[in-house]
Design a protein that fits this description.
Shape: globular
CATH class: Mainly Alpha
Number of helices: 18
Order of helices and strands: HHHHHHHHHHHHHHEEHHHH
Strand content: under 5%
């Protein structure tokens, strides 16, 4: 175990050391990618209607709201010379996520799938939250940008492979588009989830075995021992979260509306893209038609493509952030993504731009450029803006609280979409995608009010 402590001057890590410590992020995002592209379709195969879809996505934001602040506070107070501080949470989360991914395609009812999604999202959140704090634990401030953008790169890579896996399995002849299981779910979807289960556990194990954690200082160890001796762990965790919220930094408060509009928008996009494409391109919302099945495959391809853009541009954002600041990058990125979503109803699969192997690239793919830039920025720039404003010893709990800025908009989206917004939009999934585009642009405009400290941005 390294003699460097959390509070001492941390050494500069190499690119591959930063890669190793973040590699498990790939598996977590592979799992999220499978959810984003397939859960709405799975629910419809099991008999859900369009109006029921939002409430069935409730698992993600609620488990994030509950799990991440608690896990953040718990990991701040955890230390084992053998297992470390954050790594035990990575591993437990990955194990349960892998099990949920394996069982998901065998769902026999809507509520079985919804229950498994609750387990899957809770497990992914257990693994995800400590990863944000891991960057602050391991890297000096000059390398924070590289650490968070590495996570952005791996987010794009993991989600890309997750989204393209069904299309690859079909394109290379392993399965036909019409091959389905008894519950109506395509066989290609089952194998994609099985591959995701392997990726989730394997990449986390790679990080666990290749990366050490810095121990707490003697002073912090004494504090941890005193808190454990006092007992009442949950009370301590709750009080720690409440106290942190009371003294929340100004930068964090200013990011609230930015996070609200961007994550409301992304939840609209993930829930309704398949239906929007099915209606726009094939004039149907019937999940039993070949057009709907093709729209599901297209959803994976579109999401995979915007994630390709994400991981290709993630590192390119570092020097741009150095020039114009994290805030400037985020403003431009959100506006580009919003314009991309607004363009979706006007794009098609009739016009083939070129081929990659046997996969045709349609004009529809054009919107993914803007959305990919948005996603790369969303996975890094808000955390870059936040990292310098929070105390090091409270990194876990503040990163967990910051996740509330993601999940609360999702919960609001679910209930507003379920009960009146979908009706106001004419019960038309295409209009939901348009609303998402407008909200991304609004998120970009609200970013302009955020104050940032450019001194932490570095190309190191």
């Amino acid at each position: 175990m390294s003699k460097v402590s959390l509070t001492s001057k941390k050494p500069k890590l190499s690119f591959w050391q930063i890669w190793n410590m973040n590699f498990g992020f790939f598996g977590v995002q592979f799992s999220f990618g499978l959810q984003q592209s397939n859960m709405s379709a799975i629910y419809k195969y099991l008999g859900a209607t369009e109006s029921e879809i939002p409430i069935l996505w409730l698992a993600g934001p609620v488990t994030g709201l509950i799990v991440q602040p608690i896990i953040g506070a718990m990991s701040d107070g955890t230390w084992s010379p053998k297992f470390g501080r954050r790594k035990p949470y990575f591993l437990v989360g990955a194990i349960f996520a892998s099990l949920a991914l394996i069982f998901m395609p065998f769902s026999s009812s809507i509520w079985m799938a919804a229950g498994l999604l609750w387990i899957l999202d809770a497990a992914n959140n257990v693994a995800l939250e400590p990863y944000r704090a891991f960057v602050s634990d391991k890297l000096n401030k000059e390398q924070h940008s590289l650490g968070f953008l590495m996570q952005s790169f791996l987010t794009g890579l993991g989600s890309t492979l997750a989204n393209f896996t069904p299309a690859i399995l079909i394109t290379f002849g392993f399965f036909a588009l019409t091959d389905t299981m008894e519950n109506g779910i395509p066989v290609s979807t089952y194998w994609a989830f099985f591959i995701g289960a392997f990726a989730s556990i394997a990449t986390i194990l790679y990080t666990v075995f290749t990366t050490d954690e810095y121990p707490p200082s003697e002073e912090e160890l004494l504090r941890m021992k005193a808190e454990k001796a006092e007992g009442n762990v949950m009370s301590r965790i709750w009080n720690g979260i409440v106290d942190a919220i009371k003294v929340m930094p100004l930068t964090m408060k200013q990011l609230m509306p930015v996070m609200f509009f961007t994550w409301y928008a992304m939840f609209c996009y993930w829930q309704y893209l398949t239906s929007a494409l099915s209606l726009s391109l094939f004039d149907t919302l019937d999940q039993n038609t070949e057009g709907f099945k093709q729209a599901q495959v297209l959803t994976g391809q579109m999401n995979g493509t915007y994630n390709i853009v994400c991981f290709m541009l993630a590192f390119a954002l570092v020097p741009i952030a150095l020039k114009i600041g994290a805030k400037g990058v985020h403003v431009i990125s959100l506006i580009l993504g919003g314009l991309g979503l607004l363009a979706i109803p006007y794009l098609s699969i009739d016009n083939v731009l070129f081929h990659i192997g046997s996969i045709p690239i349609y004009s529809l793919y054009l919107y993914t450029i803007g959305l990919g830039i948005t996603w790369a920025s969303m996975m890094a720039m808000p955390y870059q803006l936040l990292a310098g404003s929070i105390p090091l010893e409270k990194t876990g709990v503040y990163m967990g609280i910051f996740n509330m800025f993601i999940v609360v908009p999702m919960i609001i989206q679910i209930f507003t979409m379920q009960y009146f917004v979908y009706d106001l939009l004419g019960q038309n999934p295409i209009n939901v995608i348009r609303l998402a585009g407008v909200f991304l642009i609004l998120g970009g405009l609200f970013t302009l009010i955020v104050k940032e400290d450019n001194s932490e941005i570095s190309t190191s």
